[in-house]
Amino acid sequence: xxxxxKLRTPGAVRDAERWTAHNYHPLPVVISSAEGAWLTDVDxxxxxxxxxxxxALNFGHRHPQLIAAAHAQLDRLTLTSRAFIHDQxxxxxxxxxxxxxxxxxxxxxxxxxxxxxxxxxxRKWGYQVKGVTPGQANIVVAEGNFHGRTTTIxxxxxxxxARANFGPYTPxxxxxxxxxxxxxxxxxxxxxxxxxxxxxQGEQGVVVPPEGYLPGVRRVCTERDxxxxxxxxxxxxxxxxxxxxxxxEDVVPDxxxxxxxxxxxxxxxxAVAANADVLGVLKPGQHGSTFGGxxxxxxxxxxxxxxxxxxxxxxxxxxxxxxxxxxLEGLVGKGLVGVRVRGLWAGLDIDPALxxxxxxxxxxxERGVLAKDTHGSTIRLAPPLVITEEEIxxxxxxxxxxxxx
Length: 405
Ligand SMILES: Cc1ncc(COP(=O)(O)O)c(C=O)c1O
Hints:
Elements: H1 9-19, E1 31-35, E2 38-41, E3 46-49, H2 52-55, H3 64-74, H4 89-100, E4 104-108, H5 111-130, E5 138-142, H6 151-155, H7 160-163, E6 173-176, H8 181-187, E7 192-197, H9 213-223, E8 227-231, E9 255-258, E10 270-274, H10 276-279, H11 295-309, H12 312-329, E11 336-341, E12 346-350, H13 357-366, E13 369-370, E14 372-374, E15 378-381, H14 389-403
Parallel strand pairs: 3-13, 5-6, 5-7, 7-8, 8-9
Antiparallel strand pairs: 1-2, 2-3, 4-10, 9-10, 11-12, 12-15, 14-15
Helix pairs in contact: 3-11, 4-11, 12-14
The protein binds pyridoxal-5'-phosphate.
The site of pyridoxal-5'-phosphate has 15 residues, from helix 5.
């Protein structure tokens, strides 16, 4: 291997490894700037971003409208805490509630916090509204789920890497196979307060449930007086070609959990959206966050909601997603053994005899395309929704070259 000692990347990778806990295994690229769908590293090499911060960058890097909102807000007011109300708060909550078709919004910061919020609200709703036996509330979740990394959330993870050695675990969750409506129905009892699902399992490899599953879950939840909580933190806000992944089957959950793209790739913003009969169970002092719904977050997120309200990004994702699908399906039998695509979101299963997902991502990076492996031989593609047709073709061509060896 030729080592160019003028390159800054190797030293920067070494330093990062030296000074941080190793809770991630990043690709050895060190990014210093970005615009739209493109990243530039410390050595000036350019990469097409096909991960988009796990959907946090749906609008691309440094979208001008979002950056302008952030700059303007930085010059006026950045933080109040929720002890006071600020002038961006109501607009954010109203516009997001309208986008979701819900009465109320509760802003938080990270996705995991939105999930924790949803769990707390569902339990309280269960005790106070449904009349569940005190201390007995349970929530039905799916195998292969990914909802975040807190101690409660990893308690019901079925990924041993995420769960092992972090006990004692939080009780109150029943795990059923994803996509199996009969199993889900059988798991519901009189103390079930919610079903918590990703409408498409992102971290699991963009796993789309069988058609009819989500409407079935909706029906059963209504019949059994159980809240349907849709974790749209990664699948929502345009990623799949619709505002929400649930929209593909006209399903309206009782609660949306949102995050990632809501912060425009600038600040962490998450939220729970639900009707007043659900979110209304929370009273002062029962839940909160110092930074949740801060002025900077709200100013950026208002513009995110306005971008989504135009429908342009959902359209782009749907149309360009078909091009991505066509390109990727052409590689099945040529190094890929499976492909799942919804909008600009794809899970690709690489023939494990050929190489691991990690190896494929490393080779893609050498060719100037950044993507992320998950679960052995699967790669996930989630480019920013501002990606062009030519850039999609470029990503597919580079993948084809990697698979051809
Ligand atoms: C579906 C889903 N829920 C929750 C989370 C957790 O979000 P965060 O990393 O912001 O806590 C993620 C993150 O990947 C996710 O994909």
